[in-house]
Amino acid sequence: MMRSKDATKKTSLKRKLKSASSAPRKKFKIESNNLQDLPWKSVTRPVETVFGGDEGILELEEVDDVEVVYEETDAGRVARFKVPVDESEEEDKQSDSDESDDDDEGSETAETDTFDCLAETLLPEWHSLGLHPKLGRALYSKGFLTPTEIQKEALPLALQDRDIVGIAQTGSGKTLAYGLPILNYLLNQKKPSSKRRRRLRALIIAPTRELALQVTEHLTDILKASKLKNDEAEPIAPGNKPPPHVSIAAIVGGMSAQKQKRMLDRGVDILIATPGRLWDILDGDDDLANEIKQIRFLVLDEADRMVETGHYAELDNILRFTLRQSDSSDQIDDGNAEENDEDITLANQETDLQTFVFSATLSKDLQRNLKKARRPKNPKKKDQPTSTLDDLLLRLDFRDPEPEIVDLSPEGSTVSTLKQGRINCLLGDKDVYLYYFLLRHPGRSLVFLSAIDGIRRLQPLLEFLNVQAFPLHSQMEQRQRLKNLDRFKTIPNAVLLATDVAARGLDIPAVDHVIHFQIPRTADTYIHRNGRTARANREGFSMLMCAPDERRVVKALMNSLGRDEQEIPELDPELSMLDKLKARVQVAKQIETAQHQVKKKKHERNWMKETAEALEVDLDSDFFTDEEISNVEAQKQRAKAAKIFGLKAQLKKMLAEPLIARGVSARYITSGTRPIVEDLLSGRGNTSIIGVNNDGAHSELKMVERKPKQRSKPKLTPQEKAQEKKKEKEKEKDKRKRKRNDVQSD
Ligand SMILES: Nc1ncnc2c1ncn2[C@@H]1O[C@H](COP(=O)(O)OP(=O)(O)OP(=O)(O)O)[C@@H](O)[C@H]1O
């Protein structure tokens, strides 16, 4: 019997004739009616055929000695497969319980060999790293044909068991730079038995829930892509599922802690966690604490962000479990140490812990400090860490005396495919400019605000203006946060209004624009916000919206990046267009204010009623009678509703009016200073503003003319001064001579 695995996942069957009698000590059993359960084996094909001539078939498998028998059941005639049982194999399996649930190890090896033959040609750069063949298969199927720069630098070191501090620009593939060595290690270990609970091997700590879930998804995806068989094609009955070779789990806040605890109880290999929830669970779970003491890999992803978001204490507590006993006396006391030491015994004697710290931003000072192999027992003032992050990272107990620092951060911390622009406008005009930008430059736009209130105000405003905008901030329920993130990912022209909770690590495919509606407080945040676009060598655009009061902050921000504020070109919107948009925004704001008042009133009334009921008190009958509600209040409500209705109608009319760029004739499409016929034919024309092209936001930038700086004259030495004087005298002499000659010739 043969089957082929192709891109369309179709299964074709062919009966293969082979003498059953040739098999020694062979018994037959009715295995199941599930095709997937049969002992399929890979068919090795000559390398030179590669994929040509196979018409899309990537893998071919065969199964020997399987007979199809039919059984009459209540549901009708059902085909079953009669499979031979090799007794010697059975005995071997009995004696080695670890291998017992290895459902397809034999065929996997054969298939792996097939891919391995091709891997050298298909993925030469990955192949030279010597990763597990399954990872080669996964990278190939994901289309990751070569490692990124950080992967090229970090992987060989990581695979030699070195500790690494990796700094590389946003979107450069840092997750796999630390993820592949972990997966490689685990895949090279024996497949765990279903009877024995697996022990935690790798702990990855990430600052935000979304980032932790994204890392989980990324690594799970690689594992899925590494699978040799298409498990989904024919689902295995529940209970029969073999344990995975590598199991990954995430524990983050905002989701059921009970469920996460149950998951941990079952045992996982790789745990990806946010510090807050991990510490909550660890606090009452000695088993997990003991497992963390024995881990093989510790990863801090976006370490600097963890300090910023106030997770310092939790992270510090968690990291204490990874310290070696002998190092405990070296710890820098922060005052919290005493209370924590009671519950934490520093018992980790394992010396093979490998530590990876990754971020797009880590200061040079910190990198230098990390290089110091051992901290002094009583650090002198000058040796003491200067920031919370320094402090935290210096507490890490690197087993490597010289952790390798791989710093690939670009000059000025700017990704080369990122274009930057700015809009200088009044604070009160930011809404209009934002609306203009979103209409003028369609695409997926991530708008950053520093305060949640701003998001609550902007979101309905944009919705009234027919712009699809989703909020994302820390006061939202986790489920809603993920839902909004998903919607933003799937809608190509959507807007995500986010606080800096989304600034780090989130890998959202094809974000076209990052807009700093409010200026970031630090240069690192600016870099990380920008890093949500222009990822993995794609083009991206970032725009600073700068009010007069914010100029100083922007200047300081740019200075700390070693750049001049004036280097960032300004966007050049058409003023007449802005006037039209301003009128729309004003009406939308009026609707928003009126609706907000109605909601507030309703909320207050409900709150008073509920409170009165809870306290079993009658509301003052003069103040709140049904009659009053039905008369005065109802009248007010009706008036408000009518006002909102009127405003909505007005806005609808305004939104229906086409926006036409200056110099364009919508009636005569081939005339005017900007004929639009070509845009219409090419499909490049903007659908919201007639007469402009969708050429990308950078096409609208204008360079601000910069006056060259006046250079002060360098000071001259007395000798130089004398020489200068001499030269001037000679020049004068020459001049006079020429004059005399001119007069004579006249
Ligand atoms: N070798 C590769 N070839 C092509 N794409 C890759 C490769 N490695 C990773 N990627 C893809 O690049 C994108 C960015 O990767 P990742 O999220 O790991 O970046 P990052 O450096 O961690 O970014 P950030 O600093 O913002 O967290 C992902 O979509 C990932 O799938």
TrEMBL record:
<keyword id="KW-0694">RNA-binding</keyword>
<dbReference type="Pfam" id="PF00271">
    <property type="entry name" value="Helicase_C"/>
</dbReference>
<dbReference type="GO" id="GO:0042254">
    <property type="term" value="P:ribosome biogenesis"/>
</dbReference>
<feature type="compositionally biased region" description="Acidic residues">
    <location>
        <begin position="86"/>
        <end position="111"/>
    </location>
</feature>
<feature type="short sequence motif" description="Q motif">
    <location>
        <begin position="124"/>
        <end position="152"/>
    </location>
</feature>
<dbReference type="GO" id="GO:0016787">
    <property type="term" value="F:hydrolase activity"/>
</dbReference>
<keyword id="KW-0690">Ribosome biogenesis</keyword>
<dbReference type="InterPro" id="IPR027417">
    <property type="entry name" value="P-loop_NTPase"/>
</dbReference>
<dbReference type="GO" id="GO:0003723">
    <property type="term" value="F:RNA binding"/>
</dbReference>
<dbReference type="GO" id="GO:0005829">
    <property type="term" value="C:cytosol"/>
</dbReference>
<dbReference type="GO" id="GO:0010467">
    <property type="term" value="P:gene expression"/>
</dbReference>
<dbReference type="InterPro" id="IPR014001">
    <property type="entry name" value="Helicase_ATP-bd"/>
</dbReference>
<feature type="compositionally biased region" description="Basic residues">
    <location>
        <begin position="369"/>
        <end position="380"/>
    </location>
</feature>
<feature type="compositionally biased region" description="Basic and acidic residues">
    <location>
        <begin position="697"/>
        <end position="707"/>
    </location>
</feature>
<feature type="domain" description="DEAD-box RNA helicase Q">
    <location>
        <begin position="124"/>
        <end position="152"/>
    </location>
</feature>
<feature type="compositionally biased region" description="Basic residues">
    <location>
        <begin position="11"/>
        <end position="28"/>
    </location>
</feature>
<keyword id="KW-0547">Nucleotide-binding</keyword>
<keyword id="KW-0378">Hydrolase</keyword>
<feature type="region of interest" description="Disordered">
    <location>
        <begin position="368"/>
        <end position="387"/>
    </location>
</feature>
<dbReference type="GO" id="GO:0003724">
    <property type="term" value="F:RNA helicase activity"/>
</dbReference>
<feature type="domain" description="Helicase C-terminal">
    <location>
        <begin position="431"/>
        <end position="576"/>
    </location>
</feature>
<dbReference type="InterPro" id="IPR011545">
    <property type="entry name" value="DEAD/DEAH_box_helicase_dom"/>
</dbReference>
<dbReference type="GO" id="GO:0005524">
    <property type="term" value="F:ATP binding"/>
</dbReference>
<dbReference type="GO" id="GO:0005634">
    <property type="term" value="C:nucleus"/>
</dbReference>
<keyword id="KW-0539">Nucleus</keyword>
<feature type="region of interest" description="Disordered">
    <location>
        <begin position="691"/>
        <end position="746"/>
    </location>
</feature>
<feature type="region of interest" description="Disordered">
    <location>
        <begin position="1"/>
        <end position="30"/>
    </location>
</feature>
<feature type="compositionally biased region" description="Basic and acidic residues">
    <location>
        <begin position="721"/>
        <end position="733"/>
    </location>
</feature>
<dbReference type="InterPro" id="IPR014014">
    <property type="entry name" value="RNA_helicase_DEAD_Q_motif"/>
</dbReference>
<protein>
    <recommendedName>
        <fullName>RNA helicase</fullName>
        <ecNumber>3.6.4.13</ecNumber>
    </recommendedName>
</protein>
<dbReference type="InterPro" id="IPR001650">
    <property type="entry name" value="Helicase_C-like"/>
</dbReference>
<comment type="similarity">
    <text>Belongs to the DEAD box helicase family.</text>
</comment>
<keyword id="KW-0067">ATP-binding</keyword>
<feature type="region of interest" description="Disordered">
    <location>
        <begin position="80"/>
        <end position="111"/>
    </location>
</feature>
<feature type="domain" description="Helicase ATP-binding">
    <location>
        <begin position="155"/>
        <end position="380"/>
    </location>
</feature>
<dbReference type="Pfam" id="PF00270">
    <property type="entry name" value="DEAD"/>
</dbReference>
<keyword id="KW-0347">Helicase</keyword>
<dbReference type="InterPro" id="IPR000629">
    <property type="entry name" value="RNA-helicase_DEAD-box_CS"/>
</dbReference>
<dbReference type="InterPro" id="IPR050079">
    <property type="entry name" value="DEAD_box_RNA_helicase"/>
</dbReference>
